Each structure stands twice: as C-alpha cells, then as structure tokens.
C-alpha cells in the first residue's frame, strides 16, 4: 500500500531546525492568570419572542439556557475576563481554554484538542495547514469545508453524498494518475449532514482510506455531544484510531461559540504553528470556553441526550405514521415535500399553529427536494412534541400533502 498520509513530524522538525517552532505557554504559567470553579441549577426555554414553539434550533441539548452553563460563562467572565485579549500564542491562553481542550480530547479519545474561534475557522485553518495535495470531499459538505478546500489550493475531487463506492472509485481513478508516491491525500466529510439528517458511512470511508493510504478528517458539528457518551459518530462507531482529524463546533449541542480540532499531539502542534485562523486570531473568549466545558460535561453525564433522543423518536414515528417521508437517521428530521411552494405553504401552516420550522430551498438543497427541517431539542417536553405533530398533521392536510 502507498502511504499518502501527512508527515507532520517532518514538518515540525523543519520548524525546529529553522528555529521557527512555537508552543503554547506551559500550563503552570497559564495558571498564574487565575481560574474559577463550576456551578448548578437550570430552566430551559424553547419559545421565541412571540411565544411560538421553535423546532429549528441547533441548540440540540437545550443547554444555552441551562443555569449551570450560564454560571460557568459568568464566572469565567468575572474571574478570567470577558475576552482573551490576544492570540493564544501571545497572551490569550488561559486555564479555561486548557480545561476545555482536555475535556474535548478525553471525550474524543485523542492525544489533544485545540479550540478555535469558530467551527468555520477550524475547518479552514485545518485544511489549509495540512497542505494536502488532493482532497476527496462529499458533495454536500458544509461551506466551511468547501472554503477550506478552495483556500488550500489542493486538487479537490467531489464524490457522491455518503457513497463509499463513489469515494473508492474517485481514489482509484486518481491513483492511476498520481504524480508521485509522496502525495498526501485527505478525505473529508461531515458526519451528520445538517440539511439531510444523513450520517456518513464512516466505517466504509475508513476502509477506503486505508486501502489507499489516505487520511480521514470528519466534521462532527451536528454530532458532538449527542452520540455515544457525549461524543460524536466517531465514538459511536469506535473509529478513534482510524480517523485522523476530528473537528466540530462548540455552537450547537455545546451551547456556546467556537470550534475545535481533536487529534494527535503532532496534529495539534502543527495547527498551533500553521493554522492561520488560530495563530492570527484572538483566542476564544474564556466565557465561551467555560460554557462549552460545562455543556460538554452535562452532555456526557446529564440526562439531556436521553430526552433529546426520546423527542426524536416520538416525532419521527408521528411524522412517518402521518405519511411524511423523513429521510436520514439522526436527530435532524427533514420532511421532504419536493416542491418549493408546498414547502413554503407547510412552513406557513405550522407557523399559524404556533410552531416555527423553516422551509429549506435551493441552493441549500437540490432542486425538487425542498423540505422542512425539524430539529427537536432536549428542552421540548411531551406537550411541545404533541403540539408540533398536530401542527404538521393539520397543515399537511390543508396543503394537500397528506
Ligand atoms: N461545520 C458544519 C457542518 C456546520 O453546520 C457549521 C455551522 N453551521 C460549521 C461547520 C461552522 O461552525 P461555526 O458556526 O462554529 O462557525
């Protein structure tokens, strides 16, 4: 088998040889900047300003309004400061960041993790820092992956959505005209696709990657905190040792703002040195880091995941027994109606019945596959779920879809 992986150690050695290698401040020095203790208690709102039920948020575990998460943010603001004040490599590094990164690495089963100021920055920064020769990208990957591919200047090959056979064909075809054995190849995919509710076939993707010596990078933005023990799909499928880069956002289930990358020590060291959105951007606000840490702790050890998945099962059953088609296998429930006007009429119909769930249209989804994206959270109770189902039943009948 060819090795088309990435020589991160070699690049780090080159930085050392040229006296360019940088490191984050040692933790004992970061500690001098102060720390805080975390908290308890909490109510979870699911209503918008007009008191309509929102079934369209990425706040999947309902933790943005949890008192414990809010207290963590408040205390970090009060004791560490509201802003990092500088890039992490300058003076913006705090123990709050380190705590979050340690917890992320532990959850993800990796050596280390690194916080970015957004998931967007994490994708762009990681793909460009890796400097791949060739990228294989799922056709429905998030825009921040697409932008990372473009900005990296790598040859990018797009394969069919969640289709490991299409991926394999793309690698096989490219292998026939590989310039040299020294090429580095990166396969990149979302794990849970936010508009489709589909889940990437990660096990098969890893098999293809291993056959061709490529690396696998996953974006777990819509999975982090929700699957096995508060991890993502990588943890649910036990693929920690086969996926090279695990990336995600702190802004969805983790109820905060920011992004992260988890992986080997060498990967994180490379990103500290070469990921431009990390090096040249102010560190994540300590308040966001502290809120995300507390939310991750609650995702792993609280009951929010259980409540979310109960709501998902109840809604999926209800929609399917009404006769709606609900593809995918995640917490996102896309009700595919096809026609744009039907989707807009359904959105308006449920809105009249006090439920907010937006119609998704091209260019976000392919022509003829307009849908309503229903996203329950752990903060919805049984009555909320019943209200949602009744609204769809009535509006769907009115629009002539049922
Ligand atoms: N990746 C995916 C799959 C996303 O859905 C998003 C956010 N919509 C991002 C990355 C970007 O994350 P952030 O909002 O933290 O920039």
Strand residue content: 5-15%
Strand order of the largest sheet: 2-8-7-6-5-3-4
What structural category arises from helix and sheet content? alpha/beta
Q: Number of helix segments?
A: 15
Helix-strand string:
HHEHHEHEHEHEHEHEEHHHHEHEEEH
Number of strands: 12
CATH topology of the largest domain: Aspartate Aminotransferase, domain 2
Q: How is the quaternary structure best described? A: single chain
Estimate the helix proportion, in percent.
40-55%
CATH class of the largest domain: Alpha Beta
Q: What count of domains describes the coordinates?
A: 2
Radius of gyration: 22 Å
Distance from first to last alpha carbon? 53 Å
CATH architecture of the largest domain: 3-Layer(aba) Sandwich
Structure notes:
- The chain has 402 residues and is an alpha/beta fold.
- It has 2 domains: 65-301, 3-Layer(aba) Sandwich (Aspartate Aminotransferase, domain 2); 304-399, Aspartate Aminotransferase, domain 1 (Alpha-Beta Complex), CATH 3.90.1150.
- 43% of the residues lie in helices and 13% in strands.
- It has 15 helices and 12 strands.
- The strands form 3 sheets. The protein has a 7-stranded mixed beta sheet, sandwiched between helices. It has a 3-stranded antiparallel beta sheet with strand order 9-12-11.
- Helix 14 crosses helix 15 (382-399).
- The longest helix has 19 residues, at 304-322.
- Mean pLDDT is 92; it is low at 33-45.
- It binds 4'-deoxy-4'-aminopyridoxal-5'-phosphate.
- The site of 4'-deoxy-4'-aminopyridoxal-5'-phosphate has 14 residues, from helix 5.
- The site of 4'-deoxy-4'-aminopyridoxal-5'-phosphate (PMP) has 14 residues, from helix 5.
């Amino acid at each position: 088998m060819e090795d088309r992986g990435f020589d991160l150690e070699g690049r780090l050695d080159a930085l050392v040889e040229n006296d360019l290698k940088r490191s984050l401040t040692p933790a004992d020095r970061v500690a001098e900047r102060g720390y805080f203790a975390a908290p308890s208690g909490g109510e979870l709102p699911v209503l918008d300003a007009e008191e309509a039920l929102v079934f369209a948020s990425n706040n999947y575990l309902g933790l943005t309004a949890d008192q414990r998460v809010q207290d963590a943010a408040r205390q970090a603001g009060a004791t560490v400061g509201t802003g990092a004040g500088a890039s992490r490599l300058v003076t913006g590094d705090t123990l709050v960041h380190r705590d979050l990164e340690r917890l992320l690495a532990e959850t993800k089963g990796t050596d280390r993790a690194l916080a970015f100021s957004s998931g967007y920055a994490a994708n762009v920064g990681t793909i460009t820092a890796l400097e791949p020769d060739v990228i294989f990208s799922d056709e429905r990957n998030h825009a921040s992956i697409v932008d990372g591919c473009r900005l990296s200047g790598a040859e990018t090959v797009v394969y069919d959505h969640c289709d490991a056979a299409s991926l394999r064909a793309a690698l096989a075809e490219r292998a026939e005209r590989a310039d040299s054995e020294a090429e580095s190849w990166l396969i990149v995919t979302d794990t849970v696709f936010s508009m489709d509710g589909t889940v990437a076939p990660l096990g098969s993707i890893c098999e293809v990657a291993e056959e061709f010596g490529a690396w696998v990078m996953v974006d777990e933005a819509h999975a982090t905190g929700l699957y096995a023990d508060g991890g993502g799909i990588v943890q649910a499928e036990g693929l920690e040792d086969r996926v090279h880069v695990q990336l995600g956002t702190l802004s969805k289930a983790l109820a905060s703002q920011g992004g992260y990358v988890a992986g080997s020590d060498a990967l994180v060291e490379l990103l500290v040195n070469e990921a431009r959105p990390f090096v040249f951007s102010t560190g994540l606000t300590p308040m966001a880091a502290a809120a995300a840490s507390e939310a991750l702790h609650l995702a792993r050890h609280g009951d929010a995941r259980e409540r979310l998945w109960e709501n998902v099962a109840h809604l999926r059953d209800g929609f399917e027994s009404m006769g709606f088609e609900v593809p995918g296998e995640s917490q996102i429930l896309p009700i595919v109606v096809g026609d744009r006007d039907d989707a807009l009429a359904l959105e308006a119909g449920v809105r009249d019945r006090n439920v907010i769930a937006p119609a998704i249209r091209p260019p976000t989804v392919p022509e003829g596959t307009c849908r309503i994206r229903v996203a329950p959270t752990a903060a919805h109770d049984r009555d909320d779920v019943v209200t949602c189902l009744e609204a769809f039943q009535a509006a769907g009948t009115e629009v002539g879809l049922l």
